């Protein structure tokens, strides 16, 4: 499964903020917002800026679920 930013998107909905407003407020690049939208990893500094802006902890914006191991992973 990996990272999920669903909690972040819920905060944006609660704050009545769209992704463009979010990008400008936190001073993020469009590429970073796209990575967040695809649940890809981003720099911890970015996550810290988001937490600072919303005055929250990292657990309030991101969740992590370990990925299931495949046979190929077990053979390494």
Biggest sheet, in brief?
Answer: 2 strands, antiparallel
Radius of gyration: 14 Å
| Stretches with pLDDT under 50, minimum 5 residues | none
How far from one another are the termini? 20 Å
Question: What is the helix tally?
Answer: 5
For this structure, the CATH topology is 434 Repressor (Amino-terminal Domain)
**Strand residues, percent:** 5-15%
Could you spell the SSE succession in H and E letters? EHHHHEH
- The order of strands across the largest sheet is 1-2
Multimerization status: single chain
Q: Please report the first level of CATH classification, the CATH class.
A: Mainly Alpha
Number of strands: 2
CATH architecture descriptor name: Orthogonal Bundle
Shape: elongated
Structural class based on helices, strands and sheet pairing: mainly alpha
Could you say how many structural domains there are in total? 1
Mean pLDDT: 92
The helix content, as a percent range, equals 40-55%
In CATH terms, the superfamily is: lambda repressor-like DNA-binding domains
InterPro entries: Cro/C1-type_HTH, Lambda_DNA-bd_dom_sf
GO molecular function: DNA binding
Domain HTH cro/C1-type: 7-66
Protein name: XRE family transcriptional regulator
């Amino acid at each position: 499964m990996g990272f999920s930013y669903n909690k972040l998107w819920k905060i944006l909905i609660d704050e009545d903020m769209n992704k463009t407003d979010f990008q400008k407020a936190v001073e993020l690049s469009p590429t970073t917002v796209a990575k967040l939208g695809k649940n890809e990893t981003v720099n911890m500094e970015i996550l810290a800026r988001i937490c600072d802006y919303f005055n929250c902890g990292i657990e309030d914006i991101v969740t992590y679920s370990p990925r299931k191991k495949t046979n190929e992973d077990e053979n390494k």
